[in-house]
Amino acid sequence: MSPSHTDVPEALPDSETEGCQATREILNRIGDKWSLYIIASLANGKLRFNELKRSIDGISQRMLTLTLRGMERDGLVGRTVYPTIPPRVDYELTELGRTLLEPVMALVNWANDNRRAIAEAHQRFDNTP
């Protein structure tokens, strides 16, 4: 008999289900379109909002705001507001956020190192009858 989706147990224990959901939420956060760019941009230290926006080609002000808010909620990014006019706001990776640098940069480097091989694989696949 070949493996199929029916071979999966009907229900996982609650602790495993919660663990899977938590993992999925974390991967959704760091795997979205902009979070990796933000992490990489903040790798060298604090940036003001507009500096961060300029460092990420193509991100809108709204998407940067929403992504930063989500990352702040997850404890990955810290936000410091200075009581100046206009208000100055700096963003930086938290200690938790800095722990992402090594695996994220490894993934970025892997993608850069293998992009040609992946493009060739796409071409071979797409040309297969």
Walkthrough of the structure:
This protein has helices at 14-30, 35-41, 49-55, 61-73, 95-98, 101-126, and strands at 47-48, 77-82, 88-93. The radius of gyration is 20 Å and the shape is globular. With 129 residues, it is mainly α. It has a three-stranded antiparallel beta sheet with strand order 1-3-2. It is 57% helix and 11% strand.
Q: Which labels suit this protein?
A:
129 residues, mainly alpha, three-stranded antiparallel β-sheet, 57% helix, 11% strand, globular
Which outline best applies?
Answer: globular
Spatial order of the strands in the main sheet? Answer: 1-3-2
Q: Provide the β-strand percentage band.
A: 5-15%
| Tally of helical segments | 6
Binned, the helix content reads 55-70%
**Helix/strand order:** HHEHHEEHH
The averaged pLDDT comes out at 87
Largest β sheet strand count, sense and barrel closure: 3 strands, antiparallel
- The low-pLDDT segments are none
Rg over C-alpha atoms, rounded to the nearest angstrom: 20 Å
Q: What is the quaternary state of this protein?
A: single chain
Span of the ends, CA to CA: 29 Å
